Amino acid sequence: MTTPLAVSPAATSPYAAVFIDFENVYYFLKNHYLDPQDTHDYALDLVRALRDTLKREQGLDSLVLYAYADFDKLPSGPQGPLYLMGVDTRNVLGTDHKNAADMQLCIDALEVLYTRPDIGTFVLVAGDRDYIPVLQHLRRQARQVKVVGFRESVSGDLLLMLGQEHYIDARQLLPAERLQALEDHRAARLKQGSDLRRLREQGLPVRSAAARQATRDVATQAAAANEAALPGPGDESTQPDARAAGAAQEPTPEPAPTFASIQRITRSDERRCLEFLLEQGQRYVGNLGTPEIWASPFLRRLTDVLPELPDWERRQLLSHLRDAGALRLEKREGEPHPFSVIIINYQHPDVQELNPSEEK
Question: Is the model's pLDDT at 5 over the cut of 50?
Answer without folding.
Answer: no
